[in-house]
Design goal:
single chain, about 25% helix
Length: about 375
């Protein structure tokens, strides 16, 4: 019989992919200094992004050429859709009417595309089974790279490795990427924990009123987060070290009370703020567990480990290169404006809790005094989300 722990491990491997062999970051840095000198690249071999960008831009600036490429793309997607979902609702037929007199530029473009020798350049019919719709995590809420400390330069940047980490959070079905960051190998697990934004950090804080009852208010800034967390890396549990009994101790105590197997999990004497990436052995595509704010769980996935390039920023690490846009609930009253209040226990509303915008809640007026109504502000998503 397969244990629950084994099933969970199999699920994570199937979801995130098989992990790589362990990579000692310190040995990776030492090996970099032993690489042979390949010499300087000649001007003829020094290709730039502009060599590709300019021709592509010229094509998209031409209405006839861009319309042709869009038509070919729609045709391919329509064929994929009909082959994978033949019984689904009929889609609009793609207009394949060619122009009566194709221009010279269009003839040259067709000839150029037909001369491409890469067999995988054109979509084969089998590719239909590996296509999916765009997910929210494919989008980026940032318009530019977010720097943590723009004025703080990196010491000996050429001797540092860059580690790209994606943060995954629990969703309704499985896990989804919420952000992606780039760290220096000299930074710590504490920097990893403090780099990503989490909806739990934006939950309103509850406080007791002198006359009785409770009130809620938004956290003012990132300092409202306690900084308490536990991180598991390669079977070692790291706590925050902020108290004599930190998050790591609480995790072990919980597992002991629930009689759950720890699978060799051991607690480190160092906190997450004292353990640098250089001192660790990491695996790419291996989910590393992060716990904070009570029961809020995340997984950190190592996407890439490489040496710093001369074109990489010299300051501002850790960098945030992607944040997944957050779905915002609409007001249940007007259905047009984003909701900002959660109303609990109001008999005038059709549901409890009921999400309302500011104008709709003001127009409702004061609730009846006999109703024990609680008004809770919805998160503003300001702690760590802005540029």
């Amino acid at each position: 019989m397969v244990s629950a722990s084994a099933r969970h491990s199999s699920f994570l491997e199937a979801y995130f992919g098989p992990a790589s062999d362990p990579i000692e970051i310190s040995q990776f840095l030492d090996a970099h200094t032993e690489l042979p000198d390949l010499g300087e690249v000649s001007a003829e071999e020094d290709f730039q992004v502009e060599d590709i960008k300019n021709p592509v831009k010229n094509i998209w600036d031409n209405p006839q050429l861009s319309a042709y490429l869009i038509q070919q793309h729609d045709l391919a997607m329509d064929a994929f859709y009909r082959s994978t979902k033949p019984a689904a609702k009929k889609r609009k037929v793609v207009d394949l009417t060619p122009p009566t007199e194709p221009c010279v530029e269009l003839k040259d473009l067709k000839a150029c595309l037909e001369d491409v020798g890469i067999s995988s350049y054109r979509f084969p019919s089998e590719a239909a089974f590996f296509t999916r719709a765009t997910k929210l995590s494919d989008q980026n809420a940032l318009t530019k790279i977010k720097q943590s400390s723009p004025c703080e330069n990196v010491d000996d940047p050429d001797k540092k490795a860059l580690i790209t980490v994606s943060i995954y959070s629990k969703q309704n079905v499985g896990y989804g990427r919420t952000s992606q960051h780039v760290f220096l190998s000299s930074q710590t697990l504490g920097d990893l924990f403090g780099a990503f934004a989490c909806t739990s950090n934006d939950l309103p804080r509850e406080s007791a009123l002198p006359q009785g009852g409770v009130a809620y208010k938004h956290p003012e800034d990132a300092s409202s987060s306690t900084g308490a967390a536990a991180v598991v890396v390669e079977g070692v549990l790291y706590g925050d070290g902020l108290a004599e009994s930190d998050y790591a101790d609480k995790v072990l105590s919980y597992l002991e009370k629930k009689n759950k197997l720890t699978n060799g999990l051991t607690k480190s004497s160092k906190s997450i703020y004292d353990v640098s990436f250089e001192s660790l052995s990491l695996r790419t595509q291996e989910p590393y567990w992060i716990l904070h704010q009570g029961d809020c769980e995340h997984y950190a996935i190592i996407d890439q480990i490489r040496m710093r390039h001369s074109s990489d920023p010299t300051s501002g690490y850790p960098l945030t290169v992607q944040i997944t846009p957050l779905p915002i609930d609409a007001c249940r009253g007007c259905g047009k404006i984003s909701a900002v209040w959660s109303i609990v226990g109001d008999e005038r509303l059709g549901e409890s809790p009921c999400l309302l915008c500011g104008p709709c809640w003001r127009n409702m007026g004061d609730p009846p005094p006999e109703n024990d109504v609680i008004v809770v502000p919805l998160p503003r998503y300001q702690v760590g989300w802005g540029v």
